[in-house]
Amino acid sequence: MDPATAQSEAPTLFASLEQYSEHPLGKAVVESARQAGVNLQEASSIEIHKGRGIVGEMDGRRVFAGNRRLVAELGIPIDNDSGKQASNGNPTAEQ
Questions:
Q1: Distance CA 69, CA 50 (A)
Q2: pLDDT by residue (tens digit) across 27-74?
Q3: Which domain holds residue 24?
């Protein structure tokens, strides 16, 4: 997937994945997305990584939402700028 498409899909993927989370911030993300009219997608193969994030599959793609520790566990390389962003929030990415 090209970066522009990934970035435009990220909010929908993030909220769609977070609907399976038990974390209060995840629930807030889902509620906000629903109020904004985002059409949440179904996910499968959900893996909850307590304290790190969530992983699942949507439309044949493996996606995740989580912190830097989860990114490292998944073996996804990040550059220094991304690392700074990841330590300050929860990026969503496709693997």
A1: 11
A2: 999 999 999 999 999 999 999 999 999 999 998 989 998 999 999 999
A3: 3-94
